[in-house]
Amino acid sequence: MGIRLGENQYGKAEVHLVHVNRDTAVHRIKDVNVTSQLRGEFDAVHTAGDNSNCVATDTQRNTIYALAKENGGVGAIEDFALLLARHFVDGFDWVHGARQEIHEYLWDRIETPEGPHDHSFVQRGGETRTTIVTKDGDNEWFVSGFTGLSVLKSTGSEFHGYPKTAYTTLRETTDRIMATDITARWRYRDTVLDWDKSYWSVRATALDVFATTHSLALQQTLYAMGEAVLRQHPQIAEIRLSMPNNHHFLVDLSPFGLDNPNEVFYAADRPYGKIEATVERDDAPGPGRAWDSVPGFV
Ligand SMILES: O=c1[nH]c(=O)c2[nH]c(=O)[nH]c2[nH]1
């Protein structure tokens, strides 16, 4: 009977680290959650409990803390993920690859009557900036994005023309609320660039298109967002978007003798439509291992 170890990776998940830059009295903070995973010659640890190659997950955690200090901070999450990946792959002969995923929680300075505060911050809603840097030998891939970017438009959205079956109850509408929590992941085709500038530009494009597209379906809005991101960002090969349709149902106020011209809605939390798509360039380089272990996307 032939049984063998297949693909494997291991490391420390969700190392939540806050770095405070105290160079001036105006502090800067970086709040990141790092998941480090290594790939390589780890057969013996699985099949024989031989740990001689096993860079302990505890060591991986400490390395994350130590490199944040030695590096003078985290910087752009893409750069920090690459630093970690190279540290492990270049530092141990038997580590052939690494997957470093970082989520960044965004904080704004608290606005006071005297202006933005020096060292007090307020977290920015549910938005999380993300990156996954995958290294396999000399190949390096970057998939960045955001999750939890919640948006709503109170008009400018229609939905009609769909097939009516024996089970269709949905009424056609020419004016509805459209609301979603955008998760986006895009694969870069460049490996050296201004990651921060790129992030804020992609985010701005996505929001602008959501706001200004008169929508006939959430699918259409999603595609328009992806298309605009690719048109305006040559450094990006493809973008994957996952957008729940957070339904808002008009409340029937007629029992109370009241009309309801699109004013009072019941915001349902489940079930929700789940709309996902990849928008890609014809001439994009292949993804290699960029999407390995990235679940939940088409
Ligand atoms: O934008 C939408 N797309 C759908 O596929 C769909 N299905 C549905 O019930 N409502 C909507 N809205």
Kindly describe this structure:
α4 (195-212) packs antiparallel against α5. This protein has an 8-stranded antiparallel sheet with strand order 1-2-3-4-5-6-7-10. It has a two-stranded antiparallel ribbon with strand order 8-9. It has helices at residues 43-48, 57-70, 77-91, 195-212, 218-232, and strands at residues 15-21, 28-40, 95-112, 115-136, 139-153, 178-188, 236-245, 248-250, 265-267, 273-280. The two termini are 35 Å apart. The chain is of the alpha+beta class and 298 residues long. It has 2 domains: 9-137, Urate Oxidase; 148-285, Urate Oxidase (Roll). A hairpin with a 2-residue loop joins β4 (115-136) and β5. The mean pLDDT is 97. The chain is globular, with a radius of gyration of 23 Å. The chain has 5 helices and 10 strands. Bound molecules: uric acid. Uric acid binds at residues 159, 170, 217-219, 245, 273. Keywords: Oxidoreductase, Purine metabolism. Its EC number is 1.7.3.3.
CATH architecture of the largest domain: Roll
Helix/strand order: EEHHHEEEEHHEEEE
Radius of gyration, CA atoms, in whole angstroms: 23 Å
Mean pLDDT, all residues: 97
Binding site for O2: 57, 245
Family: Belongs to the uricase family.
Binding site for 5-hydroxyisourate: 57, 159, 176, 219, 245
Active site: 12, 57, 247
Fold topology:
Elements: E1 15-21, E2 28-40, H1 43-48, H2 57-70, H3 77-91, E3 95-112, E4 115-136, E5 139-153, E6 178-188, H4 195-212, H5 218-232, E7 236-245, E8 248-250, E9 265-267, E10 273-280
Antiparallel strand pairs: 1-2, 2-3, 3-4, 4-5, 5-6, 6-7, 7-10, 8-9
Helix pairs in contact: 4-5
The chain binds uric acid.
